[in-house]
Design brief:
The protein has 406 residues and is an alpha/beta fold. 23% of the residues lie in helices and 26% in strands. This is 15-oxoprostaglandin 13-reductase.
Length: 406
């Protein structure tokens, strides 16, 4: 009998302790014993794959964040549960002990139920994480081993342990938060610009929210294509960061008139806009397009905390404006381009490892209450993002106390 969640029992070996837990009442294979009662035939050859690699016991319960109410207010929507069962990996799964998890603007859209209107609470939250494989199924053991560092893009990352399909995991040389910046933010910038940007030398590219998790990669990738890059941001410190990663012209929209500067410095308009803010910034971006210009919409964060998720735009004149300039607007949602994802991530990881890409991580060290540590701090991290304080990708560290028996 293989060790599968579909069998009559599942072997759990957390550290040195193994126990059987009955999952379903299915008939196992039996071997008769003369004059005695039949006994089950057990295949123990792969039990070692269920061992925690530090030699410590994997707990039976864990903390995780769960959406218990649909709301665009993350604090209202999400509850921290202290005693959720640690899940078991299925045949093709990994059990990952999360070390770092990424914060995305769309976490609020997810908690509000905007991506799937049929979803009903409770459900898990969080899209991406990095950690160590501490247990795995038999099929997954063909490609992964206990103790391996992996990153993944899979629902339910805001937890101490997450079951991840092996096909959604990426092996890493080490557990570094910089790698996490690439899973959603980096690939979004890479694929959207590749598919819709038509970047070439000398093109003028405007990136809104340029110092954020995704914006930082849009700036760098456009520069690598030898484009002239303009980036909007909300502070002089962010403007300095943008210059450090190659941005040609940074504009602090808190203290400068973005529209006036663009009209003065770029009277013929910009060729590509990489837009993630929405509302008034979207209107400004449309008005700033050059002839045959392209506007790529990857989000509209300014509206996410509202009941509808949208900020008003001046759309009534949009057809005329696009027609007069032969311009276009393209939307981009990463889930629709997953066929491109492995190639994009592989390329970005190589660039990161070779030092060709700045992968800026914001762990909250400069936030009023300090570094984002533990699941409890995810609420602060989301607030920090929506206050526009972050430079780079916001990442939360999940420390683990491990008492090794090795």
């Amino acid at each position: 009998m293989g060790l599968s969640a579909k069998g009559s029992a599942v072997l759990r070996c957390w550290g040195a302790r193994c126990r059987w837990r009955r999952e379903q009442q299915l008939s196992p294979s039996w071997s008769g014993v003369a004059g005695g009662r039949p006994r089950p035939i057990l295949d123990m050859s792969y039990s070692r794959h269920f061992l925690d690699f530090q030699g410590s016991s994997i707990p039976s319960s864990m903390k995780k964040l769960v959406v218990t109410k649909l709301s665009s207010n993350f604090r209202d929507a999400v509850t921290l549960r202290q005693d959720s069962p640690v899940p078991l990996p299925g045949d093709g799964d990994l059990l990952v002990r999360n070390r770092f998890v990424g914060i995305n603007a769309s976490d609020i859209n997810y908690s509000a139920g905007r991506y799937d209107t049929s979803v009903k609470p409770p459900f898990d939250v969080g899209f991406e994480g990095i950690g160590d494989v501490v247990a795995l199924g038999l099929s997954a053991s063909a490609s992964y081993t206990v103790g391996q560092a992996v990153a993944y893009l899979s629902p339910g990352s805001f937890a101490e342990y997450t079951v991840v399909p092996a096909k959604n995991a990426v092996p890493l040389p080490s557990v570094k938060p910089e790698f996490l910046t690439l899973m959603v933010s980096g690939t979004t910038a890479y694929i959207s610009l590749k598919e819709h940007g038509e970047l070439s030398e000398g093109k003028k590219v405007l990136v809104t929210a340029a110092a954020g998790g995704t914006g930082q990669f849009a700036v760098q990738l456009a520069k690598k294509a030898k484009c002239h890059v303009i980036g909007t941001c909300s502070s002089d410190k962010k403007a300095g960061f943008l210059r450090s990663i190659g941005c040609d012209h940074s504009i602090n929209y808190k203290t400068e008139n973005v529209g006036a500067i663009l009209r003065k410095d770029y009277p013929e308009g910009v060729d590509i806009v990489y837009e993630s803010v929405g509302g008034k910034m979207f209107d400004l971006a449309v008005n700033s397009l050059a002839t045959k210009g392209r506007l790529i919409v990857i989000g509209f964060i300014s509206g996410y905390q509202t009941p509808t998720g949208l900020q008003p735009i001046k759309a009534e004149l949009l057809p005329v404006k696009l027609l007069k300039k032969s311009a276009s607007i393209r939307g981009f949602f990463l889930n629709h381009y997953l066929s491109e994802y492995p190639m994009a991530l592989k390329h970005l990881l190589k660039m990161c490892e070779n030092g060709e890409l700045v992968c800026e991580v914001d762990l909250g060290n400069l936030s009023p209450e300090g570094k984002f540590t533990g699941l409890e701090s995810i609420f602060r991290a989301v607030d920090y993002m929506y206050m526009g304080k972050n430079i780079g990708k916001i990442v939360v560290e999940l420390p683990h106390s491990v008492n090794s028996k090795l």
